[in-house]
Amino acid sequence: MFDEQIDHYINSVPVSTGYPEADDYVSNYMRSNTVDEYLNLIKNAKESLSIPVIPSINCYTSGGWTGFAKNIAEAGADALEINVFFLPVDRKKTAAESEKIYLDLIEKLKKTIKIPIAVKIGFRFSNILNIIDQFYMRGVSGVVMFNRFYEPDIDLNRIDMIPASIFSSEAEMRYVLRWVGMASAQDIKIDISASTGVHSGNDAIKYLLAGANSVQVCSVLYSRGLSYLRNMNREIEDWMDLKGFSSVNDFRGRLNYRNYIKPVIYERTQFMKYFATED
Ligand SMILES: Cc1cc2nc3c(=O)[nH]c(=O)nc-3n(C[C@H](O)[C@H](O)[C@H](O)COP(=O)(O)O)c2cc1C
Predict the structure, then answer these.
(1) Does residue 255 register a pLDDT over 90?
(2) Which residue's CA lies nearest to atom 11 of ligand 1?
(3) Ligand 1 center–CA 57 separation, angstroms
(4) Helix runs in the chain, H state only
(5) How many CA atoms lie within 13 A of 237 on its CB side?
(6) Number of the ligand 1 atom closest to the C-alpha atom of 144
């Protein structure tokens, strides 16, 4: 659900046709469209599922819509994920000013709803560990690392702008693994959900070993269909059997920044040493 949709829902002004019945119809139609459907989806999902139901809102504005989060909680949601990204396009604005928009939004939401809040972020922060700490101090329960945004590309033949590849590749896990490993090793109680590049059960295992509490899967389900989840779960179970683990907790975080024997591997960013010849 996009915050623009919610804003529209809240602010929709009935257009007068001069016929009260028609006015009612128009205003009801505008108001009830997608947003009501979404609330119903949450209610129905809660009634028919035994797993937690966590709706997600894409936040592009700083939150006139936050009161609506109450409706989401009342519809039975177990938690709310906010997928927040304010593209920094103003060169006069500092990183701290940009971050404040996230923090203000979280504070507003925390005052409005009691259910846990997860924040889904992109990886372009000057200090990811600090921003997660700031979330935690404001009562955020989980962080989703990371969203993979729509990006532009260039078509050289047509000399035109086009969307960059919509779906992720497995290789993109490289931008995420370090931060999952480091964030999960902090001395704070915040759940980490790893997102980007999970295309197999083995990819999910890597994030769990790095300390993720859960992983999210998107691109591969578009390309292979939802039933592929079964294969992924089987792959995880096979690996666990092979290694003698009976529960995810037996190995979760085993290779994170705190538990791995050589944490310096998480800190290395340059290839220089790697290519140096050994004497
Ligand atoms: C077609 C498509 C639609 C998406 N829509 C949303 C969305 O509505 N909200 C959201 O938080 N993320 C959205 N995402 C991002 C995914 O949730 C996910 O964070 C990203 O694709 C990385 O995971 P993946 O490598 O498994 O695809 C979308 C991704 C794709 C490819």
Answers:
(1) yes
(2) 83
(3) 12
(4) 3-11, 20-32, 34-48, 69-74, 95-112, 128-137, 177-183, 201-209, 219-224, 228-243, 264-267, 272-275
(5) 6
(6) 19
* Ligand 1 center from residue 254 Cα (angstroms): 28
* Cα dihedral 181, 183, 189, 195 in deg (nearest 10): -80
Residue 46: count of CB within 10 angstroms of its CB? 15
Which ligand 1 atom minimizes the distance to the CA of 172? 25
What is d(CA 24, CA 17) in angstroms, rounded to the nearest whole number? 10
Distance (angstroms) between ligand 1 centre and the Cα of 262 equals 33
Q: Which residues have a Cβ under 8 Å from the Cβ of 127 and sit 6 or more positions away?
A: none
Tokens 């140096």 correspond to: 276
* Ligand 1 atom closest to residue 217's alpha carbon, by position in its atom list: 26
Q: Mean pLDDT across the stretch 82-86?
A: 91
Whole-number pLDDT of residue 30 = 55
83 CB within 6 A, ligand 1: yes
